[in-house]
Structures are given as structure tokens and as C-alpha cells.
Amino acid sequence: MVLTLGVGCYHHILAQGFSYDLHLKTWCIQSHASKLIKEQCHLWTARVREKTKIMKKRSFLLVSLMLFTMLQQALAMQNLVKTPTGSNIPIEIKPTDIIGNGGAENQDKNTQSQAAETSDNITYTILSEDDKTAYVSRFYFETNDIPAEGLSIEIPETVEINGETYTVVQFGKGNSGELDNFKCYNNNAPLSITFPKTIKALGYYSLDMIHGSLESTTFIFKNENAPLALSDDPNRLEIYCRGNVYVPYGAEETYKVIFTSYAQIQSRHTNLTITEGSIEVNDSKYTQHKADGDVTGTIDETLVIYSDDATAETENSVVISGGTEEQPVRVALKDVNINRANTVGTAVMLSNGAYVDMILQGTNTLRGGNSAAGLRVAASKNEPISTLNICQLSTGTLNTYGGSISSDGWGGGAGI
Questions:
Q1: What is the pLDDT of residues 351-392, one digit of tens each?
Q2: Torsion of Cα atoms, 223 then 225 then 230 then 233, to 10°
Q3: Read out DSSP for 43-94?
Q4: Which letter does DSSP use for residue 368 in this model?
Q5: How does 361-373 read in b/e, with b if 16+ C-beta sit within 10 Å?
Q6: Of the ranges 65-69, 171-175, 221-225, which one carries the lowest mean pLDDT score?
Q7: Best CA proximity match to 313, nearest among 346, 340, 349, 287
Q8: Sign of dihedral through CA atoms 198, 247, 386, 323?
Q9: Nearest to 23, CA basis, from 15, 33, 13
Q10: Cα first-last separation, the chain
């Protein structure tokens, strides 16, 4: 090895507390330094000999102190990353990746990233310590890990890492290295992965090698907002995946923007035509009162109440009950035109305590009967108040009218 000595080497030698006078000349010669540097080396050698007598006495104490300090630091680091007894949680120290405005990836140099492996196949890593967010950094199943009946996996909204709770907001990071960490491939077995509402971003490469047989591969997204596509290649801004991609009703077009055409974007929903009879909804169940008898069924995520002609009026009404803030009744109105001016009651009513998310599509008109609202949201004094949320996925309009006033001055009603 050739060692080149520069300015400050003398002080470095003294600070270490060792005598290098026997080797200094050799190092200078091996460095092929200029004549001036060689002369300077002779000068340094003489000065080192003078200082050596003093430094020899101090060296043992100084080196001992250095070794003791290094030992303390090593023990402290060991305690910092020590895995809890009986746990299979590995600790990974590296800069933290965070999602900034517009989905750009930034680095938080003040945060250490830690990984908690909840199984042998899936790893969650801290994304931001301040925001208490995490992301899936590894999703890896060998072919032999996949049973013949297939896999059905649901990514949780939150995970616990070293006793702290973190919200899972991202799947992958968007760099090509993910191809080594994201794999779940078996053409002979079905595969289903459900992503929670909290997922806001997907790594471009994260779904490349995750699929079973094409017709039985299912990705389910619960977030109404399509996630950001993270990529380290500006020319690859769409997520590549093969299979059926189910998204919330009304969000199909926004999801198509971030996925390639290989993904079959669709939604799960139940269609009912308002012109065929009045409809009652209770949580996930529905009953439609048709002329030839009642029809009952279970709603597949969203109930779409529609009409083929937005100008065709009907007296059939809709009553919705049930739902909670965590699990609201999800209803879409599409070109519905209910006019109950010649009868009584409201066009659409939310019962006491109902919690409803409503999507508006096309042109919707609700006209109440005598003394009735077009859309009634129950707010009885002694009963739970109903809640109606008009979803941001709405692209249509809603026109509501109260019932007319009779010639004797009675009647009338609010639009809502």
C-alpha cells in the first residue's frame, strides 16, 4: 500500500500517541513525493522524536480511553437496535423516504427507518416517523409458498413497529430494485390482494411480478382516490399489472390513468331501475317492490339506482336506513326523476340514524309530495340524526323540490 502524507499528518500522528519515526521515511519515499516534501518529512521525523518521549507516557492512557469510548458507543448502538426477546422483528437503518407534495419522493435525513416483518413474506418499513406512516417494502412469495388453493391477502390500514402504530400509506417505492423484493407468481393458483383506504401511492414495479392465473388474479382498492404512481423512470408513469382491478364505484376512470391497459379496471356494484318499483335499503340489504312481487338481495358494495331516461318521471320512492361512519350505506343516483306531487311522502328519505355516502351521476330530480321534502334527512329530536355525504366522485347534479301548497294554504315542503 502506498501512503501519501499531507498537511495535518504530523498532528494526526501525535494525536494517536504512537511513534512513527521508524516508518515515516519509508512512507514518504513510497509516496514518490517531491524533494520539498521529503525534506519536510525529515523535519517532521526530528520533531516526532522530541515529542515521542512525552507522548509514550501518555499514549497508553490515551489509547485505553479511546478503546473505552468505542466500547461504550458499540454497546449503546447494540441497545438501540436490539431485537425484543422472542420477536422476529429485524431492524433496518437507512434514510427515510417520504411522499411530498405532488407525490415526489423526498428524504428525511433526521429519521431512521425501521422494518417490522410481520410474516416471512411481507415487510413493513417506517416511511415517516413524524407522520407515523409506513410502507410495504417487501412482498415476496416463492412459488412453493403459494398453496394450490391460492392466496387471499389483505394489507392492513395500520401496523405496529417496536410498540408504535403506523398507518400504511404506500406499497413499494418506485425503483427498479423492487423487482427483487416484490414477487408472488404462480399461474396455477388464484391470487387476491386487498389494499386499504389508506394506500396513497404504488411503486411502479411493485405489481410487475405479482399475479396468479390471469382470470383469477384480483387486486382490490378501497381508496376512492387513485394512488400516485411512483417511478424513478420519467418514461414509465403507469403501473403494470395483470388481472382484475376492482375499485370503488365511480373511480374507474381515475384508476385507468395510472394503470396500463393490461389491468381490467372495474367496480363491484348492484343495479336497480327506479321505474320498476319503490326501493327500501337497510345496511347491505335491499328490497324492491315490483308489480309482480318483492325482490330482495344483498348489495355488492354500492347500490346504483338509475333510470334509462332522466326525463321520465316516476312516483316510486327510495327509503334508506342503517350504515355507520365506518361502514356507510353507499348509494349512487343516476338520472333518477322522482315526482310525488300527486301523492304523499318524500322522493328519497334517510331514516333516523342512517349514515349514507351518495354519488350523483347524470341529472337527478327529486320532488316531494304534499308537505314533504324532495330529499329528507331525518333529524328527529329524540332519535339519532341521519348523515348524508355527497361523495367527491359525483359528476352529476341534484335538483330537489318540496311539495306544492294546496289552494287552502296547507302543504308545502323543503327541497331537502
A1: 999 999 999 999 999 999 887 889 998 776 677 888 999 999
A2: 140
A3: HHHHHHHHHHHHHHHHHHHHHHHHHHHHHHHHHHHHHHTPPPTT--------
A4: -
A5: bbbbbbbbbbbbb
A6: 65-69
A7: 340
A8: negative
A9: 13
A10: 86
CB of 322 closer than 8 Å to CB of 329: yes
Residue with cell 382484475: 244
Residue listed under C-alpha cell 320532488: 367
CA 338 from chain centre, in angstroms, equals: 40
Helix (H) or strand (E) holding 22: helix 21-30
Pairing, β 158-161 against β 164-171: antiparallel
| pTM for the structure as a whole | 0.68
pLDDT digits (tens, 9 = 90+) for 3-60: 333 333 333 333 333 333 333 333 333 444 444 444 554 554 555 455 444 445 444 4
CA distance 281 to 297: 10
DSSP 212: S
Q: Which three cell numbers stand for residue 62?
A: 490515551
